[in-house]
Amino acid sequence: MKLLKLLKRIPMWFMMWGLRIIAFPMMIICWPIMYIGEALERWKQKRRLKKRLKKRERKMTSVNEMKFAVLGPSGAGKTTLLACMSEEFERVSPGTIFPADSSTFSSLNKAYRSLKREADNPDKREFERSIEGTSMLREFLFHIVGKGAFLLVRFYDFPGGWIIPGDSNNRIVIDIVKGSAVIIIAINTPYLMEFDGKYIDEGCAVDEIEWVLKRGLEGDSNERLILFVPIKCEKYLATPEERDNLHKAVKKAFQNTLMLTANPLYRDRLAIALLPVKTVGNAEFRRFKLSKYGGVEREVYRKTDIHSSFSPVNVDQPMRYLMSFLLEQFARNKKNGSWYDKFLSFIFREGDLKEVAEYIRKDIKSDNDLSAGFEIFCGRDLIGFPSHN
User: Fold this and answer.
1) What's the N-to-C CA distance of the chain in angstroms?
2) Nearest 5 degrees, angle CA 330-CA 171-CA 254?
3) Which CATH number fits domain 63-383: 3.60.15.10, 2.60.120.200, 3.90.330.10, 3.40.50.300?
4) How far is the C-alpha of 89 from the C-alpha of 142, rounded, in Å?
5) CA distance linking residue 120 with residue 115, whole number of Å
6) What gap in Å lies between CA 344 and CA 327, rounded to an integer?
7) pLDDT tens digits, 176-191
8) Residues whose CB falls within 8 Å of the CB of residue 305, separated by 6 or more in sequence, listed in order
9) What dihedral do alpha carbons 138, 144, 145, 147 form, nearest 10°?
10) How wide is the angle at C-alpha 190 spanned by C-alphas 239 and 69, nearest 5°?
11) Per-residue pLDDT at 63
12) Based on C-alpha coordinates, what's the Rg of the chain?
């Protein structure tokens, strides 16, 4: 991969030195080799993954599965978040968490490579991202691998229209939320922050998400973790003032959900946290490109440095919070005897997945890390953090 990056930069060096007569032939020679090399590397990666899956499936037994809902309108960045999370875990702890089937690998790999290619392109200071949505229910499957066993984790992604009250598929979303111990809400941050939230209805679907949450939580007594995950936050975490503005905007937009923390029916069994992430790292939101009808057609991003590289930040933290929450449930409730407690006890029994779960949460960040911009609204003990006195 270092050689491929070198091939990409060689023509640019000649351009910078004013040697265009050499740069253009070098482009013709180097760049086709680079693109062929990248395609070959992706093919090798896919082949290695298939072999790894087959090998592990022969040796291991599944300890069932857990389901989690990812809520957000079309184009919010849910797939990008999961793709960056998967790649980050493969980088820092290979073989711990990885796609469980070829469909998940293909979808996430495509999303990740597309974003990385745009962010790493040395020819463009700005790049555009179109608002693409899904037209059907999608499931992203991951294996969390322990000693002799693996846990299948299933994330659900819904078409944007399904979260609208009255839609014929709205009930499916509510039922999945009811069955999810952890709910991730992907917030398309530029729509929340720019022009005083002028496009918030178009890009964040706050009212619809809060409706689904209300219906999914009512009449339920289980402990839940709700993670607000603002995406594309490079611009909005740059300074303490920007971070404060982001926090205020999230609290204002989702105030009805946050009011649950004062409700005695919910406050002792809900953990709610805000985890902003930088999904590109080297580029900040610049402007919206509008359609002739006035709606947002594309998002335009500008690199902070033309030579900077794609470098997502904190995309691993939602999974670390998820695992910490489940481990705390196991430690707290293993003697209660309900079917869910027995299930957690079975998953995290000593020698299987407990060690890897503790390893995953080892690098978890709290809201004491001011630079990360995290905030835990309630349920610190449910996640494993000491309560503020």
Assistant:
1) 49
2) 70
3) 3.40.50.300
4) 12
5) 9
6) 8
7) 899 898 999 999 999 9
8) 282
9) -130
10) 105
11) 44
12) 22
